[in-house]
Every structure is written in C-alpha cells, then in structure tokens.
Amino acid sequence: MLGLCLALVATAQLGRSAPAQPPPAGAQCIEHVCFGVFWGRQRFPGASRLCQARGGQLMTVRSTVAEAAIALLVQNRSDASLWIGLQLPPGQACSDPGRPLRGFRWVTGDERTDYNRWKPGGPVCGSQCVAVAAPDLTWEEKRCDSEADGFLCEYNYPGTCPKLAPVAGLAVTYTTPFGAQDSDLLALPPQSTASAPALGVELVCQEHSSGGMRWSSASPGAWHCQLENGGCEASCQWDGGTPRCTCPPEKQLDRDQRGCSSLCADAPCEHLCIPLAVNFTCMCHEGYQLAGDGISCRDIDDCQTKPDLCDQGCINTDGGFRCQCHPGYELVDGKCEDVIDCYEEKCQHQCVDVAGGYTCSCFSGYAPSPQDPHKCVLFCNQTECPADCDPHTQDTCYCPDGFVLDHYNGSAKMCVDIDECEIEFCEQLCTNKPGSYTCHCREGYRLYKQNLCISEDEFSGETELYPKTAAPTPVPPKPDSLHPGVLIGISIGILSTILVLMAILYHLMKKHFPVHGAMDYKCSNRTEKEVVLQQVPPGCPSANQKL
C-alpha cells in the first residue's frame, strides 16, 4: 500500500513542469560579454546551477571593467552580498593570504586576474566560497552552504548586435537569451529580439552571411523603412504602401530581398566577370582567350602566335611563356647574353671567349694536345728546335714527341727530329716528318693497320677495308731507345770482333814464344799480354833473345 502511494506521488511529480527560472533583475552587456544580477536568498551551489541553466556561469571579476558593471547592477542596494564565481579547490581547507586570489580559483578553473578587492580583516579558515558585499564591493569569504542575498551571472557570446537607432515616439523592447528584458541595453547578444509593436516589427540578432551580427527578420524583404532603413543595404522605398529594398545599377537583390550583391555574384565565368547594366560578360586573364561557350578560358600558345618573342628558344606555359638560351648563353632581363666562360681557369695556357662558349690556345712552341684540347704539348714543325729547359736547372730539358735532345746551338740545347724511317718502322715505303712519319706501300699493295702492306689480291679478300693513305701517325719510338734488331746486330758484331782478336793473339804467341819453365813463363806471359802495345818491360829479354 505504501509503495502504491509513493508511485502515485512520483507520477504526479513527473506531470508537473519545472518551475520557471526568474529573469535577472538587471543586465549589462560590454562588448561580447553580458552580466546579470539575480536577487533572492541562495547558497553557492544553487546559484551556480541557476546561472548554468541559462547558458552562463557565476561571474568572474578579473578587471575594473567588471567591477564597474557590478556597481551599475547593485546601485540603490546596500548591505547586500552576492555570490561570484570564486571558490577554493576541493580538498583545500584554508586560503593562502600570500597569493592574489588566496588560492581560490574561478569557476572556469584558472587563477588569472588583474583585479582583487579582499575585505580587510583577513581570511576565515574553512570558508571556501566568495561573495561581493555592497555598497563598497569588497570580497569576503563565506561558507558555501550559507546563504547570500543574490548572485551575479556571466554570459559570453561570439558577438553582439548594436542597439537600434532610436525613432521619435517609438518604443522598442529588447529581450536577451538569458531572460533580461530592457529598452536601454547598448549591445545585444545573438538570438536577442527587438520588438516594436507600434510598427508591427519583431527582429532577431543573428549572424549575417557576409559575417558579423545583424538585425534580421524572419520573413524576406524590407520590414519598415522608418526603422533601420527597413533592413535594406541600399535604399528602402514605399511601393503602394509596401516597403521594398532597391539596389544601385550593376547590383542585384540577394535572396533575403534586403542585401545587394554584384550581378557577377553567381556568374559561372572561369576567370573574370564584368557586370553590365542588366547582365554580365565573362573575360579571361592575360595569356588566355575565351572559349566558344563564353564561360571557360583556354591557354594561348604565345610561342606560336609571336615567333620573335624570345631571342633563341621559347617554351609555352599555362597562361604565359618562358624564354631559354642556347648553351653558352644566359638569360639577362629577357635577353640571351654570351656567358664569359674564361672567368674560370679552363685552359692550360690561354682562354679566348667566342660566341656561345670559349676556345683554348697555346703559347709559341706548343700545340693543343690530341687527347685533351684544354691542355698544351710541345710542338716543332722543323727538323730542329730549341729544347724546353728549366731556367733554374739547365740539365732538365724536354723535347716534343718524336724529337731527341742532341746538341747545343750557342747557349741553347736543341731537339733534333728522329728519323723513324731509318729504323725501318714501315714495311715498305716511309716518309719522315718533323716529329712523326707516314708509311706508304708500293704499287700493287695497300696499307694495312698503319705500317703493314698487303697485296691487292689479299686485300680484296679482307672483310675490313683500309684506305691507301696512312692511318693517324703512330707514336714514334722513344728517343732514348733503339729497335731490338739493331741492338742484337750490335751485340753480335762486338762479340765477333773479340773472338777474332783473341784468335790472332793466340796464333802470335804460339809462333814466337815456345813453352819454357816457370821462370820463362813469367816473362813470356808478360810479353804475351803486351804484344798488342809492341813494348817489352825492362828486365825481360825480347822475343829474339835467348836466356
């Protein structure tokens, strides 16, 4: 039976609507923040819940600006205390006098502040909440479960609408989202309403499509030309007793029939739109041309339409072009200029700038190296040329390839051409040149592989043909070396001469000096040694004397 009664009571409670929250007794809005004052005995937790119910919080008093707002809200009231959003963190029993907020924190969870106004007399240990006391607006610590005469709420918004321009004899009432109703508010938060019953107009503060907060009407078009120009961006005019918005030439009304936008606002032009009197036309950026549909743009090939656009090379790009230069040139102010390559040491001797690059040259007595044209080697086009000697060490001299250091001509050492033809480097015919030679063949033969000659018959069967003229001149033998055949011939000649001399000497000794004893052997041996010189040493008999 008791359970049934409790169920009936619970059902009755669910059927009741929540009690309406009282509106603030006063409100002030400064920039993007509004403050409201609520009177009535409340504990700290209850006051905090009532502020949150309307989208706010207990007031944070961080500056003198907030203090000035409190002074306006509590004027004509004395000996009253109101909760603000300052309390000790949970678990902290006593306040700390050495800190600006004494260890208290705002309901936002931080301790940031540029202002405090503690009541003289020191903190009360165990009191964990703060109230502001009128009329001096000092802060005092209170027990959170004690009651204050009221509380202050704070509401923050992204922006506000300004108060409507006053109209003589016209009363306008404003209502804020947190329940404040007044006609003297200077700034109104979003979703605030402005009601002018005499004109039958009710407006709402809301964000405009172009940005910022503006007064607007739920229905499109002008509301009344007398109040805020009917909401028209340009001009508000009466048309048969009905207010209408109009726009200047080259502009059109927006969907709300109050704002004005360009005729090109919704134009499908790819690049540019030019508004006309009642329409628009599309245009393209430089380097493009309008396509056949009159909307899109396509690139112009500048290199094709303007052949002389660049000095040397032209590359078409999207909406333009780019000039480029040949190797050895660089682009300077749109023109191709020859690069000065000889700034760097690229040549061994001399560097000469030419159009589009550079060339190397050599000092007198030198010629470009066949292997590397940047380097120079000794060169002589005569059979005899001065040697290149170290001025500090005259014993160190150099000759061109194909020459040998031979003799002095005055004070200069000379390099003499090596006659490669005498060495029989060519198989048949040879022509000597300064520093080189050329092989030739007799009639009926052709030159094969630089220095060999083969008959015409044999040559016709070769898969690889060679011209009659000699191939590039081979490197001649080193000046300080001889042909191997010459060395062998010289060696055989020397050996034969030695053998002949030994045979003659032996024959003479056998004929004139017969074999004797040991004593005779000593003298005869000496005579045999010196027979070539035709001298007899003193103390020994001659070949015709007897012992």
TrEMBL record:
One biological process term in Gene Ontology: endocytosis
Species this protein is from: Terrapene triunguis (Three-toed box turtle)
Listed transmembrane segments: 486-509
Recorded topology in the membrane: Single-pass type I membrane protein
Protein name in the entry: Thrombomodulin
Cellular component GO terms held in the UniProt record: membrane
Domain C-type lectin, chain residue ranges per copy: 30-147
Pfam families, per the entry: cEGF, EGF_CA, EGF_Tme5, Lectin_C, THBD
Domain EGF-like per the UniProt entry, residue ranges: 299-337, 417-454
